[in-house]
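pasting for the record
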Amino acid sequence: MDQLEQDLQKLRRQVIALATQTNLSQPPVGEYDAVISHVEINDRHGVGVLLGQLFRDSGPILAIRSHTSYAGDNWLGEHHYCISYVGLSRPERFLKVGQLIGPVRIKRILCVPFREDDVWTGIILHAMYGAPLCTYIMDDQNVAVNNINDGTLQELLQASALRLAISQEMAAAYERKYQLPFWLVPPIVSPELILNHAESSPLTATQQPTGEMIHPATGVLVGNIWSKSWLDQLRRMTRQTKLSIHWYGDREQTWLKTSPEELCQDGIIYQGFLPQQELVQKLREYPFAVVATSPLDRPGHDESPHAQAIARYSLPSRIPFMLATANIPIIVIGHPLTTAARFVQRFGVGASCEYDPQQFKMLVEWVLLPDTQKDIRQRAAKLARYLTSTGVRDWIWQSTQLGTAVDRRFEDLMPRLPDEITELYNRCGQRKVA
């Protein structure tokens, strides 16, 4: 698809979203599933990619969000709503939802809460329409941080027939706090993108369409960096080791306050945002990937509680994505007890190190060895077949109807490790229900 057609499709989605929000479109009639997220569902962020892969080509959907970040560019749903409850009482919140959505029949509800408004929408839809509710925690906003009220979240979780978490660390933390069972659903990948047979590693220089050569020791970084502290430490390492990293993603991360020119001086070359298919082809040209995460309890690092919460409990969707689509070895930089580092170590698909230039350089040298490349890529190819999105949507809805997981496909793939979970709690701590 050329750029013009992509721009036209985006414009069509924005017009549909605007019509829905201004009541110019026809109100929903018939039977719908409701999917609740914090922003538009598209490929500019991990939650959007995951929900798009789960629910594309499904039946009619109402897509409901609490905030607009992408000018209404929503890829999922016949009807889109942006609902905020600021300043409203509980009865007024129910009335607002009823007026916006009307007497439609809602079959099932999936709520992915990030803001408290998302939680309220899940509670209200379940109460008003009587549909079975599944809550899927992808980002921690309540255990390590206090961005969602305990009582409100508890009401949502108790109303949910099924509760999911994106990592075992997240599942264990929320089970421990709320004394309710959670099931694992890690980030999954569209089957047409999966590479389940290991290809030879790109250890020779390759030429990009621009004519630039990708050096065999150049790594790749995909997606967001959630803390300026992490980026500063990464820049220090690439500057001191003279190693280069190509960064693909959406650079509009205001908290980083860094220009592409400054990054380039330190060896981090910003490559821009690529659509998924193009990104997959690029990933297969690199010998290793880098994921920057938190040093957690290490002294001398200034990072927000939100950034630490992401590192402690969320499994970045880019990790399964890169492994499944490119079988690429991954170096996680940060604390070994972060969810990202634990995932890579569990499956033997890379390694982790602290923000230490010497450690990083040694790991890059190790990962570039032909035997290392072969072994890791073979493991990643075997893992990839278990990360397909095929059948996962049906699994979620059937499990929601049943009130428990219909099988243990992801629990068996990634069983909880009690000793490591206990260590995680001891080191990081967590808030109790207020």
